[in-house]
Amino acid sequence: MRRYLAYSRQAFLANTAFRFDNFMGIVDTCLNVFIFWCIYRALYGGREEMDGITFAMVTTNFILSIGLDAAFRLDEGYLPYRIHNGSIGTELLKPISFRGILLASDLGNIGFQMLFRFAPAVMVAVIVVGMERPYSVLAFAAFLVSVFLGFLVLWTLNFIFQTLSFWIINTWSLRTIKNVFVNVLSGSMIPLWFMPDWVQGIIRVTPFSLIYFEPVKIYLGQMTGEDIWLSFLRQIFWIVVLALTGEVIWRQGIRKLVIQGG
To answer: Which burial class, exposed, middle or buried, applies to 16 when counting CB atoms under 10 A from its CB (0-12, 13-18, 19+)?
Structure first.
């Protein structure tokens, strides 16, 4: 465990070297929040509620979703880069799990982003446009648990697309398509409240809404008691399914791997 913590610490500290980049990341997140606020303010036309969805709920949704999306910046080129330059061979010789290293590094990066990008951006957004408070202390605690599980859903999904680089030289286009699906179907760009019922039904059987939208619903108190536990179980179910799928692809890729060099 200490070895993985060392990788997390190293990734966390590496981010401190890019102070200007981190500052611009906060500015970028705040600008995205403000742009979405202006768009939905215009769509609401000065009204405070539309079809039972208040403007404050919508504002809270995109502040939290955009903020978390900015924080959950995974290194999608970590595995492809090492496969293409052959250093994956050295990585596999280490006496610790490569996937454990990848997860630990991503957790270190995200820990930094949560503290120095997500938190400052949310505070600025709250001051400028405002947002709803957590429904209750328990709802906020459940929200934090759901956010962590949502991250694991995103991470396991991302790992699957990284492992495809064993067969595909450039996975950039596939990762881009995946990111579009995540942004749209997770409620990050368009709150799923405004989707037709039949579309929401389809999205509900996918893992995407579990990344951002359902944690936000817990925060707002739209899910309580048994519904929260069911949401946790759905997140855990998808984490297991995606992790097992990634494991199968990883093992097949390792068997296929051929490294040439001098």
So the answer is: exposed
- CA-CA distance, 21 to 23, in Å (whole number)? 5
- Tens of pLDDT along 80-98? 888 887 788 787 888 888 8
Single-letter code of the amino acid located at 88: I
Q: What is the DSSP letter of 116?
A: I
DSSP 103-147: HHHHHHHHHHHIIIIIHHHHHHHHHHT--PPPS-HHHHHHHHHHH
Cβ(11)–Cβ(105) below 8 Å: yes
Q: What's phi and psi for 45, nearest 5 deg?
A: 60, 35
Instruction: Name the residue type at position 46.
Output: G
Distance CA 82, CA 219 (A): 39
DSSP state of 115: I
Backbone angles phi, psi at 107, to 5 degrees: -65, -35
Place of tokens 């944690």: 215
Q: H or E segment at 254?
A: helix 226-256
Which residue is associated with the tokens 């396991």?
156
Instruction: Quickly tell me which residue has 């817990």 as its tokens.
Output: 218
pTM: 0.91
Q: pLDDT tens-digit profile of 40-83?
A: 888 888 788 887 888 889 989 989 998 888 888 888 888 888 88
